[in-house]
Design a protein that fits this description.
16 strands; 3-stranded antiparallel sheet; disordered C terminus; single chain; 8-stranded antiparallel sheet; alpha+beta
Length: about 325
């Protein structure tokens, strides 16, 4: 799964909570840190008080969801589920966690385990390795890999409960939770009667209707500059965009470089650098499919993408890591 994402860059930007007039409608933007990344929510609304309420509610909702999804928090819902791994009986879970795990398990089946939220043991191992800038021991990789198997995450539909069947298993939602969070925010914003918005969650984007006088939200795709410096652009309207890349984060060991995106099939970081963007109808799909594409590559991924409405690979570049 992925620990971070290469940011896409919105062309139309404004300062945090700054007002600018466009076609008699005011643009508002709120920025905050949550889920270990930077969030920015931009809306168009002609009511100042309403805009403040909507944006404050958006930040509060992200904080609430982080208490469900974060495997960094000892008291989060997903951490409690992981701590119960191997115990008798399933654990009832919230609707939010159920929705994410259900989607994740369906994607795991479609990708034969290339996408796997039970990658938590490997995620912890490699996070420590990146902090120390040292390769994890091969025996530790093998031990943790033995705990990664989506088939050992049991979902009980009648009870809306989940069960990790093997002690030591852990859930990591780093490749899907931000996307789901964007979807929840979009529903919250639309529920307040605001339909022109752009949500940026660490470079993953979810757009509502176009800004006034525009065809859509103009987005410049990072990492796409040609020899003349021209950057590829895309116009988003009621779509989600997720990007990923491993160009800068890696560990070098015996002439090979291992990126920060971990392959749940091998237990190791993928040893290629890449840049790409995936578009989908919703944030959770785009987020999870971006993680999947990073591991599968564009050829095999195309078959998976075709099973999701609105899925499109906007660009894909993959090269072997250069060694010293």
């Amino acid at each position: 799964m992925t620990f971070s994402r290469t940011a896409a860059m919105a062309i139309a930007t404004c300062m945090a909570f700054v007002l600018t007039a466009e076609a008699d409608t005011l643009r508002w933007k709120k920025q905050f840190q949550a889920m270990g990344t930077h969030f920015a929510v931009t809306i168009f609304c002609d009511d100042e008080r309403k805009a403040e309420i909507v944006l404050s509610q958006a930040e509060e909702e992200v904080i609430r969801l982080n208490r469900i999804f974060s495997d960094y928090l000892d008291d989060s819902e997903v951490t409690k589920l992981s701590k119960a791994a191997g115990n008798e009986g399933a654990t009832p879970i919230s609707r939010e966690l159920w929705d994410v795990l259900k989607f994740a398990q369906e994607l795991s089946v479609r990708t034969d385990g290339v996408f796997d939220v039970t990658i938590g043991p490997l995620s912890r191992l490699w996070r420590r390795a990146f902090r120390r800038d040292e390769m994890p021991d091969s025996s530790a990789v093998a031990d943790n890999l033995s705990l990664v198997k989506h088939q050992n995450l049991s979902l009980q539909h009648e009870m809306k409960a989940a069960y990790l069947t093997k002690p030591g298993m852990r859930i990591d939602l780093g490749g899907i939770a931000k996307g789901y969070t964007m979807d929840v925010l979009a529903d919250l914003i639309r529920g307040q009667g605001v339909h022109r918005f752009l949500i940026d969650a660490g470079g993953d984007l979810l757009a509502g209707e176009a800004p006034p006088g525009k065809k859509g939200w103009d987005i410049a795709l990072s990492g796409t500059a040609d020899a003349q410096g021209n950057i590829r652009k895309v116009v988003l309207v009621n779509k989600a965009l997720a990007t990923s890349g491993t160009t800068y984060r890696f560990i070098e060991h015996k002439g090979l470089r291992y990126g920060h995106i971990i392959n749940p099939k091998t237990g190791y970081g993928i040893n290629s650098r890449h840049n790409f963007a995936v578009m989908a109808d919703d944030g959770m799909t785009a987020d999870a499919l971006a993680t999947t594409l990073a591991i599968m590559g564009s050829v095999d991924f195309g078959q998976v993408c075709a099973t999701y409405d609105g899925c499109e690979i906007l660009y894909f570049e993959r090269k072997a890591f250069a060694t010293k």
